[in-house]
Protein 1
Amino acid sequence: MTSSRRIIIGFSSSGDDASSSFVKLTCPICTRRVLEKKNKDVCCGKTWTIERKNAYEYIDLEISRNANSFREAKLSGTSLFETPIVSNAYERGWRDSFAWAGFPGKEKEFDVAMRFVKENTNQRQQQNQKQQLGEVVLDVSCGSGLFARKFVDSKAFARVVASDFSENMLIEASQFAREENIDATAITFVRADVGRLPFETGSVDVVHAGAALHCWPSPTQAVAEISRVLKPGGTFVASTFLDPSANLNNDDLTKPFSDFFRDAKIGTGGAFNRFWTEQELKDLCQMVGLEDFKRERERQYILFAVKKNSVRCEDDDEVEECDIVLSMDD
Ligand SMILES: [Zn+2]
């Protein structure tokens, strides 16, 4: 016998309203809120510090920070970006070299990313907020902070969070921000693992990942984390590399080649963990509740945007208080 059963999952924005303009950081171990001043009543207090080195500052919320011997197994691509040499070179030519794959240049890439975000941000939300596109944009794997600085300049968000696993990249990002006199009150640097994001569930309006997805050790875990931290209706926008068969511009025809490239780990230029097909990226997003896939692509470059399932309510004014209703057969 099959009957329909409704399961109600409450979904409301937690935390006090007064701090809603600020980033809701959580401890990567106990997952409770951490505040700007260490407060053990809120969090276990064991895992995070505010690091000050070379006159820059970032909040370290990466759990292996104090481990002497343990290191997560990583492929060469990821580790490369933790070296001072590559961190230093990244914005001084390295990033522009992606033009070989079809990357259109940072200005154009940023413009398209912003256009996708605007298209996804509903008009009502825009009217109700002081900021054009939301309170918090999170730039994961921010590298030298190229796009994080552009988000600050856009003034479309109250707060920009620039996060990376690599300490050396955060040093670069912080130095660039200083050199360009970026408003320090508008940006927060956080060291974090993209597979274990230290942000409260449903607290971020937009997550951006520029040329990063192909470097992550576990894209499934990372994109699931991104989906978790996004507000309902929030946007994930990312650029990455398609596999070499994309140059033929016929995905159906070239699927066997793509399967071969993926299984043989060929075509990733040695520096990266993997390249993609468009359909794989769609699947990856859909698997973790990110929908309405839209993209621009050119040769091996793709920039795509997806939206977190938004809660449909009869009264739009109460969208934050609304419940998600699932139907389940038993
Ligand atoms: Zn804790």
Protein 2
Amino acid sequence: MHTNQPSKVRSTFYFGLVATAMVLHACTSRMAEAAPAPPPAKSVRVVKGDPPPTSQLALLMRDMTAFADSTGKLVSAGKELPVYPVRFKAIMTAEATPGMVEHRTFDPYAQAWLGQLDALYAAPASERNEVFNSLVQTCAACHGLMCPGPLVRIKKLTIQENED
Ligand code: HEC
């Protein structure tokens, strides 16, 4: 492990890039195809037998989204973080929808995201809001490059900084 990248500045910069890059990519249409019948379920069920409706990575992403959503609320409320989500290390190996991931691009962003996750857990409580937002910006940075569909949702995960 070498340098972590705690830099909010850098993430913020990516965030800007993302907005520009998102138009060029097409994960959006795939999202539309996948969208028609989302069960209003509380948990994700994988149906066996039929071709899997979602990849391992997509399922992991849903889990990451739920995590970011609930963790953002905890952080906003000044509460403790949930248990460290070790399961997200699988981002490096989870199988993606065919053609979706180009690993040369994906892998460094996935590493950066895991680095931000660690940074969140290492941050003093007083800095958690900012570090949490950097984590969300790292979600957005990757999505701007390869799967812009969820960007709107991702941006909504951002929480208030310097609350008081
Ligand atoms: C390193 C790149 C990368 C990072 C970081 C990343 N994503 Fe993703 N995300 C992807 C890719 C690629 C897909 C498409 C996966 C597939 O279809 O197999 C995806 C899919 C998704 C989906 C759609 C899942 C579905 O139901 O099909 C959501 C929602 C999502 N990501 C949210 C997030 C959130 C929230 C974060 C941060 C907490 C995040 N992503 C971080 C690359 C990334």
